[in-house]
Amino acid sequence: MPRLLSAGFALAAAFLAGCAIDPAVNHTGARRVETTDQATEVEVLLVLDNPNDSPLELITWEYSLQIDGRTAYSGTWMASLTLPPKVPMPTELPAVIPASFGDISNAQWRIEGSFAYRATRQIDRLLYQLGITRLHGTFSASGTGFAEPPPRPAPKPGGAAPPPAPAPQPPAK
To answer: What does the radius of gyration of the chain's CA atoms come to, in whole angstroms?
Structure first.
């Protein structure tokens, strides 16, 4: 009998919580962040749109990035992002491309994966903590080339130099 009651509670709670609609994920491009002899750090630029009437908390992203048909990066990224309802929000997914992929300036790229999220109402949080609801969405995007990183601001003329490091103190006696 107790097992039947807990199953009934879980079903009733799931019904009361309703279902959240997955956020829409659209890409706006990709850019290089930094290039070294070993690798190139890139970001795929995304815009997330939460169609629900309440905020959603993105928890994690799991994705892979292919360059010219070969997997260059695969990993998990902690999202830690709250999407307000009905307001587009820009974000970036980072990846590190090994130097063995060569010049990626005009390469064909494709990113695909999934994201975990939870609704933010109190009942939704409880159901998430109990393991009853685990919400996931999928996404994919593709494009050509990685934009140059934005230029770094030039140092201001006559700017103050950083303070010198403190001199070592003699040991106390």
So the answer is: 23
